[in-house]
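Shipment paperwork, digital attachment
Item: protein structure file
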Amino acid sequence: MTAPIAHEANCDGLVGPTHSYAGLSPGNIASERNRGEASSPRAAVLQGLAKMKRLADLGVPQFVLPPQERPDIPFLRQLGFAGSDGEVLAAAWAQQPAIAAAACSASAMWAANAATVTPSADSADGRVHLSAANLVTNLHRSLEGEQSARMLRVLFPDREKFAVHDPLPRVEHFGDEGAANHVRLCAEHGAPGVNLMVYGREAWEGWWEGEDARYPARQTLQASEAIVRRHGAARPVFARQARSAIMEGVFHNDVVCVGTRTALLFHERSFEDRAGTLQAIEAAAAGLFRPEFVEIAEADLPLADAVKSYLFNSQLLVLPGEDRLVLLAPTETEENPRAHAAAQALVTSNGPIGRVEYVDVRQSMRNGGGPACLRLRVVLNEDELAAANPFQRMNDAVYDLLVDWAGRHYRESLSPADLADPGLIEETRAALDDLTSLLRLGSDFYPFQRD
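Attachment content:
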């Protein structure tokens, strides 16, 4: 039977007006290294929009995901800060600056962590299933789950075609980091596939284990198993991240692994049990397709260079009219000699990757998020694609509207001290209020609009 025509749509997070370098993410080396430096929210959002427009022009279905409301004043009020909104923010910065920084974080821009997705070709009930991630490992990201679910229900409103689930219980046992730890392989996007679910620890191990453990293992096996159960996801393969890689800055699997259709591109040190993982994928794919494993050895690209260059945090694209895949990598990959050589070797090897292109997302990269971090992949057949909110789909008109919007609302520069400015509350709310109209998100999309 011929598989229905389907596309791997990209849903990219718009960088929020409070984009800053607060160093809130242990294990994210770039985030820690650039902590305290001034950021450029306007440059950041324009870089993200340029990437979205580039993919839309290449024929990839591309959607825009709105930023979340920050500073998160309701969160600060829950913690006992009182008064006007400006007084709440000022008190938080004066008394608990680490908490205030978390309340201002624009980290929802990294949409790969927004949810885990099971396409209709793999789900038990024939719907697209999306589970918003709870992101409980880091305080600033744990604030995102409820709004992420609301956002996905606005983008995919048809309940007969889409099932959007609330986050798993917000406890460390079910730590869930979304699609950054999920790879789907298949013969064609509309055909049945294999769902590779990568985890860093089991629920009762704790976030840190052993005297040498510097960074938390964020995704639990039990969270991945729960996602598979609630989605009815077919052919799951559960694989453990290499512990040594986590300790060197591989906080999500997508720092060392990316895949689409039959191709899985990964670093030699991606998995704790490399051979067992590849065998399990082959067994799950038997009778459906033959996986193409593209491995880059530690000798060719040391893990430190992989983390620094984010070669694997690239987008593997199926483009109209191209027989081989296109790898869209950050410019940092091109500038790193060993990573650039590894990327070029992928092309000359005559494997599944036929071309490498580079994209400038430096503002995101300085916070540890590459091209793949900025997007959530959702496989949609033609009917499902037509049922998504059309006002969020990138095209020339939407791009022009959003570039103009960013120019009117975003600051050119933002220092850590600027985050305490009460005026930032009204600035961001004005921007988000305008955005809800542009993208047809509804008049009660954000908490401040409901209040």
